[in-house]
Amino acid sequence: MTTFVLSTFNAGLMPTTLEPVVLGLALFYGGIVQVFAGLLEFFKENTLGGVAFCSYGGFWLALWYLSSHTEFSATITPSDKGHAVGLFLLGWTIFTAYMTVCVARTNNALLITFVFLLAAFVCLTIGDFAGSTLATRLGGWTGFGAAAGAWYCSFAATMNATAGRAIVPVGPRSR
């Protein structure tokens, strides 16, 4: 949900003056709830789930802090600010790239989700480093793919667990 809402702004579908609506989701749902989910995954001995949920929860918490508690000096140029945010996003792009490799051994639904997430991070990183509105917009649109994939995976996991059998397919990958 947090990715969907932020992607709406990145895609240019809502005015940026309304972006603070993302902050509550980033702090609570994308941040705190995901870290908690990650900790539960570690207790279940699911390292991939634990690392992914805790890390992306940390991403949302960091983005919340960056957006609500960080003020760049008035003397900094927009280009320098873009480079600083681009550096932040580059780190997450690198993390997402190697997590995509790890996820490739799970199932197709999760792999597709991570491919879209990686594409979104690549576009957003380029957008900030290059000051490219087009790249940022493309990052928003690919973010919608990541959000849809995450919702599908969440739905499949919940429905299949509730039914006690696989009803919603995720396309298992061969190991």
Automatic annotation (TrEMBL):
Residue spans crossing the bilayer: 20-40, 47-65, 85-103, 110-129, 149-168
InterPro entries in the cross-refs: AceTr (IPR051633), Gpr1/Fun34/SatP-like (IPR000791)
Cellular component terms (Gene Ontology): plasma membrane
Lineage: Bacteria, Bacillati, Actinomycetota, Actinomycetes, Micrococcales
Protein name in UniProt: GPR1/FUN34/yaaH family protein
Gene Ontology molecular functions: acetate transmembrane transporter activity
Keywords recorded for this protein, A-Z: Membrane, Transmembrane, Transmembrane helix
PANTHER family the UniProt entry points to: ACCUMULATION OF DYADS PROTEIN 2-RELATED
One matching Pfam family: Gpr1_Fun34_YaaH
Entry's family note: Belongs to the acetate uptake transporter (AceTr) (TC 2.A.96) family.
Record keyword ATP-binding present: no
Membrane topology annotation: Multi-pass membrane protein
Location of the protein in the cell: Membrane
